[in-house]
Amino acid sequence: MVRRARALMVATENKAVILVSGGLDSTTVVAMAQAAGYDCYTLSFDYGQRHRSELVAAEHVSRAMGVREHKVVHLNLDSIGGSALTDEAIAVPEQATEGIPITYVPARNTVFLSIALGWAEVLGAQSIHIGVNAVDYSGYPDCRPEFISAFETLANLATKAGVEGQPLRVETPLMRMGKGEIIEVGIGLGVDYSLTVSCYQATSEGLACGVCDSCRLRRQGFIDAGVADPTRYIAN
């Protein structure tokens, strides 16, 4: 009898679903997971973001790193707006701001992790990896360790795998690392950061603005790591 194509696979410790944006952090997470012996399945989201060149970068990075499978899920978070990343009428700030910045996308990581959780169940993977960071980051509430811990609890209450004794972990290997340290680790693992795009308002060719919050953090990271910055900037 032919089994259903979407049937849940037998859980295995060495499969990992990794959220990738095409940026510096998530690319480093893929390299770290591969070094730890995981079979990596990368997941990106076309959610209505203005910086769509990150999707191209995520595909290029995934192909270059030889992951098992790369999947893009289509969402329409731009339909609810509320963020400079999903609403063209809201300008991306080019100066540091107080509090949670307007580039925060409401509930983004909650939605992304939920879909990653579903794919992990289908694959039989027991870990989801995400490049959130509580040191060099923009102050987003869904990048904090408290959020990750709460989501992991939810994941094991809400899934067949969790209920049947196959608990799922949410791995955040970059949580306590600064950008310079992240880059040093990535360089040591052979990451080609020239393939990555981090800018909130990158051009369709992947050229970075050099002035948004993400660009500032990235640029400082290369300075702190003492590594030449391979980013292609618009001014260049």
From TrEMBL:
Enzyme class, broadest EC rank: ligase
UniProt keyword annotations, A-Z: ATP-binding, Ligase, Metal-binding, Nucleotide-binding, Queuosine biosynthesis, Zinc
Residues binding Zn(2+), per UniProt: C199, C209, C212, C215
Sequence positions that bind ATP: V20, S21, G22, G23, L24, D25, S26, T27, T28, V29, V30
Cofactor note: Binds 1 zinc ion per subunit.
Alphabetized Pfam families for the sequence: QueC
The EC number(s) this enzyme carries: 6.3.4.20
UniProt pathway: Purine metabolism; 7-cyano-7-deazaguanine biosynthesis
Known catalytic reactions: 7-carboxy-7-carbaguanine + NH4(+) + 2 ATP = 7-cyano-7-carbaguanine + 2 AMP + 2 diphosphate + 2 H(+)
Domain of life: Bacteria
Listed cofactors: Zn(2+)
Family: Belongs to the QueC family.
General function of this protein: Catalyzes the ATP-dependent conversion of 7-carboxy-7-deazaguanine (CDG) to 7-cyano-7-deazaguanine (preQ(0)).
Protein name: 7-cyano-7-deazaguanine synthase
Species lineage: Bacteria, Pseudomonadati, Pseudomonadota, Gammaproteobacteria, Cellvibrionales
